[in-house]
Each structure stands twice: as structure tokens, then as C-alpha cells.
Amino acid sequence: MKKKDLYINRDISWLSFNDRVLDQAGRQEVPLLEKLQFLAIFSSNLDEFYRVRMPVLMAWKKIMKQNPGQLIPNIDIGTYKKASKTINKQQEKFGLILADIIQELAKENIFFIYNRAIPTEIKDLTAQYFFTTIASYLQIIPIDDTSFFPINNQLYFVVTDDNTGAVFFLNVPSNHIGRFFTCEINGNKYVVLIDDIIRAFFPEAIRNTSLNFYSFKITRDAELNLQDEFEGDIAQKIETEVNKRDLGYATRFLFQPNLPKQLIETLATLFDLRKSSIVEGGNYHNLKDLFSFPIKIAELSYPKQLQINKNQNFKESIFDQIDREDLLISTPYESFDPILRFFNEAAIDPTVDEIYTTLYRIAGDSHIAQALATAAKNGKRVNVFVELKARFDEANNIHWARLMKEQGVKITYSIPNLKVHAKIALVKRKQGRESALLGTGNLNEKTAKVYTDYFLITSNKLLTNELDMLFEFLPARRKPHSPNELPFSHLLIAQFNLKHTFLSLIDQAIQAAKAGDTATIKIKLNNLEEESLINKLYEASRAGVKLQLLVRGICRLKPQVPGLSDNIVVKRIVGRYLEHGRIFIFQYQAQSSVYLGSSDWMNRNIYRRIETCFPLLNLTLAHQIQELFDIQFADDTEATLLDEHGQNQAIETQQKNVSQQQILNYLKGKMKQ
């Protein structure tokens, strides 16, 4: 088999994941208003794809055009065309699903006015909203205004005047007043896009009814153009690049279908658009705004789930409790409070001398960052590594880094050519006592409500000692000189021993299978891309190892290919919560090794990040994670099987196992024991 036939294209695989998100919006079992949320997720994901991946595909296309007939390693020249075709099909499906949802909303007396005229019964109310609110934000921009530069991902109209031939731009101020107007009359709720209110009443406002409105938006390249440097203020450099991000070149000019061809050509010249970036869409853009759909009805939403509260003994320090027994938190089923308590108590506990942590995506109103600042003001030595290159969170991270620094926190910024993606913390107390926090997800109380993640709090010296080594290394802000520079033997750290250890663990399973023992590997990831690890999984399959993989997003591995991956089954789960935790289980010779961690198996995680995976040395907790994995792998409702082409296949069953609900029930049962 040729090398190119061993792997699924990463971009096509990602689009398959987004298609699964779209399917969730069409599932009968999903509450009606939640369906709109999945449409918003799909739209937001697609915007990010155009900001991050389409620039790469467009660059490949340009390279191939400049080098006809030349084969370039690791580049599939057909990807751009395949991706565009796939996206077009998904957009058509999006429209059909949304149309069905609008019909279902009407049955609930919720009238979403979409692709139709504003009803007579709400004309006066929408007119009032236009003249009292919307009009104050409208800007009329002549087409020959050379200073006009469309803001990234903002909505605009290009307006033509049939009488005078004039052409001008008009902004849609959803960034100021939101996208929707809502009102209620006689028990009927109405939701109107402000786009349509502008179309209806702007002509009246300027006493000109000969106007034509054509909606458009421009999506720009989101990649930061940073030369990694050791010297100077990296925060200032990144802040400058973030501000320039909205000035990046256009990767998509999205316009409504009836925009005249001549006007398209004029705009292409005006905005310096590549032909490949000009994409016909629907009458409405930025449907990620459905996140803020203004109708909230409990009966049409997911039922509220009360989180399980662990560690409710407030008469004793959390650190004294952890000295006796490890604590494992599974968010969002279990409350994030113990993690907040870990930092808050460290800030005021007189026995705490030093605090170390890494922060990758900081919450906008972060109690953790506030606790770290408070700890510094209370005289503790606080050392925080802030990753400033966390895509789309750079500005917020810079804000908190500066605030903490002002309060006396010692801040270390990004490492040149590396991102620190590890989710770790270490608290040092008097008499040499140490407590560690290691997680699969960000130390962010907001995302912890919707991301499934795992957080281990432990005083096990085998882990705290090695974490101490890592925190001593990070301020050097450099790559290790060699993978053996630091002697990690329990923690798996990318750039040191992570890849080698995973390959070794798979090899041990292979040897066990070849010796006639039962060997099983169970892995849960967000993304699976790195080829040497995929090849080792193929080798394990051929040796008779049974492999169960849960991969939410990109999966380049081809499952169920005869002679290559017969023993590999891959499932993808998309449900109420975003699956985010990484699990690695290796079972052979009547023993199990269980790891959790921050690292996916992507090139960026393996080669361009500092990641931390950690063993569960507490056998009870290790067994619990194995049971949680098995519950998820048995999901036959919100899980789909991935075929050898990376496409989602429904699971034929009558069982209706919904793993996210079953996990909540399982963890509730554990609390009662």
C-alpha cells in the first residue's frame, strides 16, 4: 500500500467532524433550541476553518500552479477542491436543517423571520427599533472611499441605487447591538434578524425606495506572523500581531446569491480578492450568531444538570485531604470547585510558600488568575507561565499576565518555537510538602462547564518531584538540548519522553499479543494525526492487539482496512458537552497502565508543544477511568463509527446508550458508595 493510501487527509477528516456537528442539529432527540446551538457551532467551526486552514490550502494551490507537474511531499493538490465541494454540500444541508427547525419553532409559537418579509403585526415595533436603536450605528460608506477596509468577519451590505447608479457600503451593527430583535404579541414570540430590519426601513429613512441590498462578509487569515525571538517584549509583539490579524488577507469573500457579476468583479479588485476566495453563500452570513438566539425556554432546552460536588469537607485544608488521598475531578459532571479551592486556599494558607502554574486559555473573569495575584500580594512566591500564543485568546492572556505582573507575580512568557499546552500547577508548603494539579483541559472555570475533562490533584512525590523539574526548566524559555535532558520516568512530557514512551507502551502490547496474551489498547483523543504513532497502531492491529479509539475531531488513521487495521475500531462522539479529555489505556499480561493528559497525537502536540500526560497511580482512580472509557465506547446514540474514508456511519442498535447521561449516573453512584 502506498504511503498516501495509509492516511486520511486531515482537512477532509476535520470537515467530517463538522458534518457530525451538523447532523446533531438535525437529530430528533436533541431539544429544539439546542439544535440552533449546534448550527451555531457548525458555523463557528467553519469560520475558523476558513481563517486557519484555508490559507494553507490556498498556499498549496498557488505553489502547485507555480510548479506544474512537480510533486511536493505531504501535499495533496486536490484538497482545496475537495474541501470546497464538501463545504458546499454541508451548507446545503445546513439550509435544509434550519428550515425544518424554523417550522418546528412555529409549532411552539416562536416565529423566526428568515428569508421572508417582516409580518404586518410587528412592522411598527421593528420600525421603532430601527429608528431608535439601529440607525444610530449605521455608516454609509461610498464605494470610492479608499480608507474603507471591511472588518474581519463583520457583516456588511453593498447597496446599489437603481435611480442614480450610486454604490455604497452599509454596516450591519450586530457587533454593537446583537443580531436579533425579539418581541411578543398575543402569546406569539417573534425573532427578526437586524439585517432584514435594515433592508426594510433604511430606504424609508433616506427617502429612497430604489435601493438593492446585497449582504457580504470577509474572513481573513488568522495565523500570527511571528518571528520567534528571545529578546524584547514578546507580549508587545504578540499584541501588535493580534491587532494586525483583522488586516490579514482574505481567505473567503462570502456573498448572497444575486450579487451582480460586474459588482463582484469590482469588489474583487477593490478588496484584492483571489478568485478562489470568492464564495457564493446564502442571504444571511455569520450564523454563528445563533449562539445568542434570544428565546430561552426550559422545555425546549437540555434539562438543567446539577453538578456533583466532591470534596465538601471545609473544616480541613484541601492540601491535608490530598496528602491522604488523590482526588480526580471529571468536569462538567463534577464541579470545578475543588480546582478553584486548590488555588484560593494556596493564596491564603500560611503554610504555602510557593505556587507554580501554567495558563493556556484564561477565563475572561478568572478566579484562578485573581487568586494568583492575591497570593503574590500575600507575600507568596508565585510563578506563572502564560502562553501568549493560544490562538484567539492572545489578547485576554496578555491582559491577565500584565494584571498579575503588576501584583507581584513572576510571569514567564512563551517559549520561542514552542507552545506550552500543559495544564499543570504545583504548590509548595512548609516542611517540604508539595501538592500537584494535572489536567487534560484548561484551568478555566468557564470552559469547565461545557468541556469534558479530567483533573488530578495529588501529593504523590513521584509526580510532584517530576513536576518540580519541569517548572524549573520552563523559565529558561528554550527547547531541551536533547530528549534525555531531564530524567522523567513517570510523567510523559512532549519534547522529552512522551512520544518514545507511547511507542514503547504500544510495543509492549504488541509483544504480549505475539506471545499469545490478550492485549488491548484504548485511547481517547481530540485529534489523531502523527504518522509514526499511527503506523505503530497499525502494527499493533496486525499483531492481534485489539484497539478501541475515541477520536472527536481529525482522525488520519484508517480503521477496519483488511490486513492493515482489522482490529481497530474508531468512534466519534458529539453530544451536549464537548469531548475534550485525553485517555490512554494499555492492558496486557493481566496489568493495566492508565494515563491522562493534555496531548493529542498531532504533529503540533508532539513536535511543537510542551505537553504533560500523567499516570493514574491510584488503582481505584485508574479503574474508574477504565470504566468511564468503556461507558463511552458503548455509546450507540451520539457516537458514530468512522469508516476507512473517515466518514461518519450510524451505529445500528436498539439499545440507545447515551454515554454522557450514563457517565453522570455512574459518577452519582460513586458518590453514594
TrEMBL record:
The keyword Calcium does not apply. Residues 317-477, 491-660 form the Polyphosphate kinase C-terminal domain. GO terms for molecular function: ATP binding; polyphosphate kinase activity. InterPro entries: PP_kinase (IPR003414), PP_kinase_C_1 (IPR041108), PP_kinase_middle (IPR024953), PP_kinase_middle_dom_sf (IPR036830), PPK_C_dom2 (IPR025200), PPK_N_dom (IPR025198), PPK_N_dom_sf (IPR036832). Keywords: ATP-binding, Kinase, Nucleotide-binding, Phosphoprotein, Transferase. Residues 7-112 form the Polyphosphate kinase N-terminal domain. An intermediate of this reaction is the autophosphorylated ppk in which a phosphate is covalently linked to a histidine residue through a N-P bond. Residues 125-293 form the Polyphosphate kinase middle domain. It catalyses: [phosphate](n) + ATP = [phosphate](n+1) + ADP. Its EC number is 2.7.4.1. One of its GO terms (biological process) is polyphosphate biosynthetic process. GO terms for cellular component: polyphosphate kinase complex. Pfam families: PP_kinase, PP_kinase_C, PP_kinase_C_1, PP_kinase_N. Catalyzes the reversible transfer of the terminal phosphate of ATP to form a long-chain polyphosphate (polyP). Belongs to the polyphosphate kinase 1 (PPK1) family. This is Polyphosphate kinase. It comes from Sphingobacterium siyangense.
